[in-house]
Specification:
The complex is a heterodimer of chains A (about 300) and B (about 240). Chain A is mainly α. Chain A has a single domain, classed as ABC transporter involved in vitamin B12 uptake, BtuC, CATH 1.10.3470. Chain A is built from eleven helices and two strands, in the order ααααββααααααα. In chain A, strands 1-2 form a two-stranded antiparallel sheet. In chain A, a hairpin with a 2-residue loop joins strand 1 and strand 2. Chain A is globular, with a radius of gyration of 19 Å. The model of chain A has no long low-confidence stretch (mean pLDDT about 90). In chain B, helix 3 packs parallel to helix 5 and helix 4 crosses helix 5. The model of chain B has no long low-confidence stretch (mean pLDDT about 90). The radius of gyration of chain B is 18 Å and the shape is globular. With about 240 residues, chain B is α/β, with parallel strands linked by helices. In chain B, the strands form two sheets. Chain B has a six-stranded mixed β-sheet, sandwiched between helices. Chain B has a four-stranded antiparallel β-sheet with strand order 2-1-4-5, with helices on one face. Chain B has two domains: about 170 residues, Rossmann fold (3-Layer(aba) Sandwich), CATH 3.40.50; about 70 residues, no CATH class. Classes of the chains: A mainly alpha (about 300), B alpha/beta (about 240). The interface between A and B is medium-sized, with 18 and 22 residues.
């Protein structure tokens, strides 16, 4: 393997890792706060991409792409916020809440995918890129859109981390995630904070969707693959720290890129699942986690 | 010295179906006073704090007056803003968050203060309570039970209480820690804070309280000078059962 190829495959892995980090952090935040694994996360990602496609109306360019991404994130934030009251809240405090939420989020995923099919049809689409063209680095051609995806993903994660650490609302969200009872005793509006958590998570999924939809062709069920990768990321990295799924996302991105190069596209999921099973056996709390559950 | 009523409870009742956890309770706490509250487990002491502060629920009937103004119809946050602040029996802390973030969450939520002002209140309260400043950036879950209780008390004091409701601040502590709790309670009281103190550690309770209220099955069965009240036959019977 030449150095050029190594660099190119590595760069592809990092770009994938950035998008998986965006997606998986959203999943992890919901899991650590509500104890719910949101199986509709992939469908929200797809919906985000379709909303952006609709807003951009076939034209590319930085301004249109920025507008499309912002509208998509805003719409999906609102949908995520509302979905708390439909998918989670009616079942909270029930003994089998985890199972019930699996069913409700799977149902939501099916509803969203079919709604996309009804509204936009089955034909493949692509969100027009913000920046066309590519540049050469270490002998490899890198697309501007790929770099934009990586930079935006990292920036969004830094913004989220700062929001959680430095703002009053962020602190309240961390508080409710850690000790719901104490948070309620303190007068924190837990329902609002839970809904906000899902809203932020779906907005991040939308952002990931907009970029994935600009790099690949999209169809109504195209969120299933990123959801599966995010599931692997969350299990591989654990959720004890904010950075755990982010670090794991880059491991998964790089593993996917290199396994695709060396073994082929069809073997790549097998490699990732193999890694996941190995981690579950050897270090079930995750590669980058302690045995705890927190934000 | 003329006594000025600070907190008054009139016919305070909390029912859960047929069970009255607090039953038609009346008492008055004067400004600057420490009212000790004792009673066997399940006698309604913590429920009394719950319904005064509306955390997590208010009374079924009755009135609570703060400086003569009714507060029983207000929300938990509004009651805290008016100056009635409580601590909890169990250490209600956010374990993975830093101690200072624990204090800031409460301040932002109840008083609505943020930034430097919130930090200043947290520092002042830490100094008053004696909560070490170098613990501020430690995760709360890493603290001992004593320091977690100190953190909870610091959080309450930072909210600038007129009336502080302390729910078993000395439970699970050893003698020298109980002595430090006693010093803090007296220090806070000297600063003009009126205190209601629930405690099972009777030497602490009787040594700091100006008056003692003993509850049994939701009702007040004795009230007055702590040394006299603990010798009251009704109180002895409530704690030890009827003498054959």
């Amino acid at each position: 393997m030449s150095a050029d190829t190594f660099f190119f495959v590595g760069a592809s892995g990092l770009i994938l890792g950035g998008l998986y980090a965006l997606m998986a952090t959203g999943l992890a935040v919901v899991w650590t706060t509500l104890g719910v694994f949101n199986f509709a996360h992939g469908a929200f990602l797809a919906l985000g991409a379709y909303v952006a496609w609709q807003v951009s109306d076939g034209s590319g360019g930085p301004a249109t792409f920025l507008l499309a991404a912002c509208v998509s994130a805003a719409v999906l934030f609102c949908l995520g916020y509302v979905s708390h009251f439909a998918l989670v809240k009616p079942f909270e405090r029930k003994k089998n809440m985890v199972l019930l939420s699996v069913i409700t989020t799977l149902a939501a995923a099916a509803i969203i995918e079919n709604a996309i099919l009804l509204i936009w049809g089955p034909r493949d689409k692509q969100v027009p890129a913000a920046v066309e063209g590519s540049f050469e680095l270490f002998g490899s051609a890198l697309r501007y859109q790929d770099i934009l995806a990586l930079v935006t993903a990292l920036a969004a994660l830094v913004v989220l981390a700062t929001f959680l650490r430095r703002t009053a609302t962020g602190r309240s969200m961390r508080a409710v995630a850690q000790n719901r009872e104490a948070a309620e005793l303190m007068g924190l509006r837990t329902s609002h904070l839970f809904a906000l958590t899902i809203g932020i998570s779906t907005a991040m999924a939308a952002l990931a969707g907009v970029f994935i939809g600009s790099l690949r062709f999209m169809n109504p069920s195209f969120g299933a693959d990123p959801l599966m990768k995010s599931l692997i990321v969350v299990i591989l990295g654990g959720v004890a720290r904010f950075t755990s799924p982010i670090a794991a996302a880059f491991v998964v991105g790089l593993a996917e890129a290199f396994s695709t190069f060396f073994l082929g596209l069809y073997w790549s999921p097998a490699v990732l699942f193999g890694m996941m099973i190995a981690v579950l056996v050897v270090k079930p709390e995750g590669l980058f986690s302690r045995r705890t559950k927190t934000l | 010295m003329t006594s000025v009523p600070c907190l008054q409870a009139r016919g305070l009742t909390k029912s859960f179906g047929a069970l009255a956890a607090v039953d038609d309770l009346c008492f008055t706490v004067d400004k600057g006073e420490i009212l000790g509250i004792a009673g066997p487990n399940g006698s309604g002491k913590s429920t009394l704090f719950n319904i005064i502060t509306h955390i997590p629920f208010g009374p079924t009937a009755g009135e609570v007056l703060l400086d003569g103004e009714p507060i029983h119809g207000l929300s938990d946050i509004e009651i805290t803003r008016r100056g009635v602040v409580r601590t909890f029996q169990r250490e209600a802390v956010f374990a993975s968050m830093s101690c200072v973030d624990n204090i800031l969450v409460a301040l932002e939520q109840t008083l609505g203060v943020r930034g430097k002002e919130a930090q200043r209140l947290a520092d002042e309260a830490s100094q008053t309570v004696g909560f070490p400043r170098n613990f501020h950036n430690q995760p709360a879950g890493a603290l001992t039970v004593f320091h977690q209780k100190q953190l909870m008390l610091t959080t309450a004091v930072a909210q600038r209480p007129k009336v502080l409701l302390l729910d078993e601040p000395a439970s699970s502590l050893v003698d020298d820690e109980i002595e430090r709790v006693r010093e803090v309670i007296l220090r806070l009281n000297r600063q003009g804070i009126t205190i209601l103190l629930i405690e099972h550690v009777l030497p602490l309770l009787t040594s700091v309280s100006n008056r003692l209220l003993v509850m049994e099955q939701g009702a007040g069965i004795a009230e007055g000078d702590p040394r006299e009240v603990i010798r009251d036959p009704r109180v002895i019977e409530a704690y030890l059962g009827a003498v054959a």
